[in-house]
Amino acid sequence: MTQGNIQNLDALQREIAQLMVKALNLEVSADEIDPDQPLYGKGLGLDSIDILEIALVVSKHYGLQLKADSEDNHRIFGSLRSLSDYVAAHKAA
Amino acid sequence: MSSSPLVSHTALEQPLAWFDGESISVSRFLADVAQVAAMLPSGDHVLNVCRDRYRFAVGLAAAITADKVSLLPPTHTLEMVQRLKAFAPDVFCLHDNPDCDIDLPRVLFPVLNGKTIGATRIPTIEDDRQVAIVFTSGSTGAPVPHPKTWGKLVLNVRAQAECIGLKQNSGCAVIGTVPPQHMYGFESTVLLPLQSGNVLCGIQPFYPADIVSALENNPVPRMLVSTPLHLRLLLEAGLNLPSVERVLSATSPLSLQLAGQVESAFGVPLLEIYGSTETGQIAIRRTTAGESWQLFPEVRLVERDERFWAEGGHIEQPVSLNDKIELLPDARFLLHGRLQDLVNIAGKRNSLASLNHHLTAIPGVLDGAFFMPDDASHEQVTRLAACVVAPGLSAHDVLDALRQCIDPVFLPRPLLFVDELPRNSTGKLPREALKQLIHSLTRSETA
């Protein structure tokens, strides 16, 4: 991966963190979200309603539709990093 | 002794379900029921947590034919499972998730092979057989059981089919976004298709795109059983919507605006269902046609002791309702919000008393109280706040402890640490005082 790609990924991660904080009225700021912390349960403490809300803002913002039929779904929402990686790979050009 | 059939389909070759991309006939269903019934352990109580609706329905029917009772608790937290074990020590868990870690003897739902010889005619079940026990969270933390007998469940969903205009044996595919274990999903996505000769759909779509493909993958006619939350997200996603015959919504009130948007997006009526775990569904309205609700036939609302009670029809025994009600002529009524103590978040119900009980039972918590904000908007999910006096504990400690015993939708956001709660001289905590405290704390945080 080139340096530029990594910077883009970091920027994307920050942007998605900001979208999440805004959509869910989270009490943490976007910078405080550890990219490797689990989003569900013990980590950030999100539940399936939050995941639906995030999916909506992410799909609108990046022009992609999330589907639950792949076993990947739980992994995609495993952490901010995995969600950002998924968006980077699937977003509309 | 009166009895009712396990399913109301009229012929063995009639389609009964759609599962894993395949149409399932009544005879195939009966074979699947026999296969699962033969592998169930000896305990009389089943916690059926199958996520796929067809597997849930097969598990339910297998339990019924094997004389077992299905338990439907409001949540599957560690504490709830312990409580179920105390309620029914022989309970076992039927699941379809290899990662299931529910702390009970577990039976993984088998791969259905269609080879077991099933019943050659549709079994009938005695109407007074207790087939399920649905639980609500009680005010002291112990769940409250509400037994359901077969005849009343059947009566309820047959009345529903009539009220919503769902024709018997019309091959209508019922697609639901709600889990089959929730009372609304249990009735409207499992029992309704089975007791109207229509088609149950196994899949439980999650994202808007999943809802669209679940609809597309089923032949017409079809109906969608959903909630205000899912309907809002579905419309906001801006996808092309496949045709449906009708849309049902329940779990929380739908705004007139969203109801109108749903009707124009699908071009069909949107019907709202009113009910509760204790009563089952008891009334219906077309939201765009007016605010008032029409009671199901035979069901009555009676005012006693400054509360309204639902009785008659399929209701097992008179149930005191947790809503403010205004009776109108012709078996119609208006709803004017919930009585104080009750909270309903995304269709999950709890009482503040019960939540406070769990909060203050945490070791190290000296005092604490949950708070339901006023601005409970319709489709945006409102979250609870809580204040806690717990020197020496972190927010993580408190949240981790709560997560063991309450459903995640009730976890407080925000959770505020205070030195003391504004209790009055009698030790009571006026809602207004708590509200002011929370407002002052959250204002200063964002300032």
Automatic annotation (TrEMBL), chain A:
Extract the Gene3D superfamilies matched here.
Answer: ACP-like
User: Span of the secretion signal?
Assistant: none
InterPro entries, A to Z: ACP-like_sf, PP-bd_ACP
Pfam families attached here?
Answer: PP-binding
| Annotated Carrier domain residues | 10-91
The protein here is known as: Acyl carrier protein
Q: Which organism is it from?
A: Novimethylophilus kurashikiensis
UniProtKB/TrEMBL annotation, chain B:
Matching SUPFAM superfamilies: Acetyl-CoA synthetase-like
Please name the Gene3D superfamilies in this protein's record.
Answer: 3.30.300.30, N-terminal domain of ligase-like
- The AMP-dependent synthetase/ligase domain sits at 19-288
Task: Name the source's superkingdom.
Answer: Bacteria
Query: Pfam families annotated for this entry?
Result: AMP-binding
Record-level GO BP terms: fatty acid metabolic process
Q: Which GO terms describe its molecular function?
A: medium-chain fatty acid-CoA ligase activity
Q: Which InterPro entries match?
A: AMP-bd_C_sf, AMP-dep_synth/lig_dom, ANL_N_sf
Q: Which family does it belong to?
A: Belongs to the ATP-dependent AMP-binding enzyme family.
Q: Per its record, how is this protein called by name?
A: Beta-hydroxyacyl-ACP dehydratase
